[in-house]
Amino acid sequence: MSSNPRLSVVVPVFNEQGNVAPLVHEITAALRGRTAAEGGDFEIVYVDDHSRDDTLAVLRQLKSEVPELRVVHHVTQSGQSTAVRNGVKAARGEWIATLDGDGQNDPADIPKLIAERAKSSPDVKLFAGWRVNRQDSGSKRWASKWANAIRSRMLRDATPDTGCGIKLFEREAFLDLPHFNHMHRYLPALMQRAGWKTVSVPVNHRARGTGVSKYNNLNRALVGIADLRGVAWLIRRGKVTRLEEV
Asked: Where are the beta strands (DSSP E) in the chain?
């Protein structure tokens, strides 16, 4: 594995022991053997958010089998946004691809996002997955539909699906964004606030393989109200100043 990979795949996990190995092998299958121009030189950074099952043990075993795999472990549970940010901070690639650890995102879509980046202008810093065929329960799809509609109306981020875990973004641009709990749900709006463009890309979506979801409609709604107000305030107070050296 290169010490200077072009792409880092960051995967936050909490109690996903049954989904770790299949997803790691799918990531390597999707990315090994690709040319450098396509982001073939890669690493995988798993961030274990202090799991209470055997997730960490499975990851330790996989490290001996998968040379691209690196593992970061939270000493205390800190949440998905912090796990994503710590994974990005630990990553060595210039560009970051993220996946949810439950296996519902398809790693085969990562090359699709990379191809979209190759034909886009340099000021596009985020390529967000758009789940056009959701494989969730009816209540979850309904809640997501209304949440996306409310968010779009308040933030005007022109993004049909911000909850999709598969994304591709520039590491430096991401680390320059304001960090707060649940910020991973508002990346398009935050990137646009920073003066960058974003693109939504249709991607595959799958049913969860094993385990249970860590969220429900009620807790997402309660935190979402406060988050939306906060992000709207950030956008109103934001100012972008471009620099040039003389």
From this structure: 7-13, 42-48, 69-73, 95-98, 124-131, 167-170, 197-203
CB 177 within 8 A of CB 190: yes
Whole-structure pTM value: 0.86
| Residues in contact with 220: Cβ distance below 8 Å, sequence separation at least 6, in sequence order | 143, 147
Q: For domain 7-237, give its CATH number from 3.90.550.10, 3.90.180.10, 3.40.50.450, 3.30.1370.10.
A: 3.90.550.10
**Per residue of the chain (246 residues), what is the pLDDT tens digit?**
567 899 999 999 999 999 999 999 999 999 998 755 555 699 999 999 999 999 999 999 999 999 999 999 999 999 999 999 999 999 999 999 999 999 999 999 999 999 999 999 999 999 999 998 876 555 565 556 666 666 666 787 888 888 899 999 999 999 999 999 889 989 999 999 999 999 999 999 998 878 777 555 445 555 567 787 778 888 888 778 877 888
What is the rounded CA–CA span in Å between residue 165 and residue 46?
Answer: 14
Q: Which amino acid is at 186?
A: Y
Q: CA-CA distances (angstroms) from residue 189 to 2, 120, 160, 185, 198?
A: 33, 19, 12, 9, 9
C-alpha span between 86 and 5 (Å, rounded): 17
Tokens coding 122: 């340099």
87 touches 48 (CB < 8 A): no
What residues are paired with 201 via a beta bridge? 129
